[in-house]
From TrEMBL:
Record protein name field: Uncharacterized protein
């Protein structure tokens, strides 16, 4: 049971990381002018 739970947790974490990456990517796509500022904020935020 513990292994299955750990595997599910690992999958959720990786999905969250992927979602954050996609969010940053879309922010860059939507705001090309503010891209440099937004990436700086995002790095500090993490």
């Amino acid at each position: 049971m513990l292994k299955i739970r750990y595997r599910m947790l690992n999958m959720v974490v990786s999905m969250l990381e992927y979602a954050v990456f996609m969010l940053k990517f879309f922010m860059k796509m939507l705001n090309p002018l503010n891209a440099s500022e937004q990436t700086g904020d995002a790095e500090e935020w993490c």
